Amino acid sequence: MAVSGGPEAIHQLSDAIASLGGEVVIAYYGAQMGISIEDTIIHCSFTGSPTPSAYRDYRSFTAARIPLTSRSLVIFPEPVIGWAMAQRPFTQAIWWLSVDNALIKSPALSYESHRQQFFLTPHLLHFYQSDYARDFLTKGGAKKIYPLADYTAQRFHQTLKSLTRDQSITYFPRKGGALASVFFDSHPDLYRVPIENMTPDAVHETLKKSQIYIDFGHHPGKDRVPREASLSGNIVFLHERGAAAFHMDHPLDRFFLFTSTDVSNGSLYERVKQALTDPDKAFSAQQRYHARIATERDEFLFQVKFNFFAPEILR
């Protein structure tokens, strides 16, 4: 299993359900881990502990054989929505942790007619991690939709803004790398620090030192890294694509949102320079964003209680 935002959200859900007294098992699958889903059982093939070390602070339970009954709820992440198409004796749901990745894995969803047919499938529930996904689902005609977000890891909540910072600007080259290259190559005076080939702890240490984080990606869901950067004390600028274009997902003033045109015409550069000149002012201007991130875990736990401990929801 990859160490990224989606799998971490799954482990957060496992931890939350377990903490509330529910029964939950994670079924791992991947290139080295086979999986078979039948009407009464899920078979998983793995050796040793399949849980990545990065997620072992979350309570998670695994099993090679997971019995299913009519009272079971099986939640599929959006890359494998095809697995949920068949009618089964148990309740099935899809957790839309990303929109764009689902479209890559299931290109037919790009067509409105197929989307509408899929979302009208009566036996499926839909959970959405972002307002971007909620918008996608409602426009597609989905009826049984429920909020189920995630939250930023607790280790980021311990960062103090007063830590000494340099003038560096962090970014992920794998997220909008071409646009990032255009921006930084045009402005060699900026001190850029690419985040790549780092452990989660190394990423955290890097963000604790940098002044600005710029995300040049397309934001297929409510991405975790901008929120981690914000909690680490960074001023955040986001490419206004996907979930970044939805204020509920990233409540930032327009000053901190940019388009590809803003990169090419120098508008983003001017705003970045302003932020570097008076970082305290720019950081304070993102207080709404900080407050939103700070309440994520409480909101997530409320959603888990509502979605999984209110029986009428699953009927």
How would you characterize the overall build of this protein?
- This protein has 315 residues and is an alpha/beta fold.
- It has two domains: 5-152 and 296-314; 155-294, Rossmann fold (3-Layer(aba) Sandwich).
- The protein contains twelve helices and twelve strands.
- The strands form three sheets. The protein has a five-stranded parallel sheet, with helices on both faces.
- A hairpin with a 3-residue loop joins strand 1 (35-37) and strand 2 (41-44).
- The longest helix is centred in the N-terminal third of the chain and has 15 residues, at 5-19.
- The chain is globular and about 60 Å long.
- The relative contact order is 0.11.
- The mean pLDDT is 90.
Question: Can you summarize this structure?
Answer:
This protein has 315 residues and is an alpha/beta fold. Helices cover 35% and strands 15% of the residues.
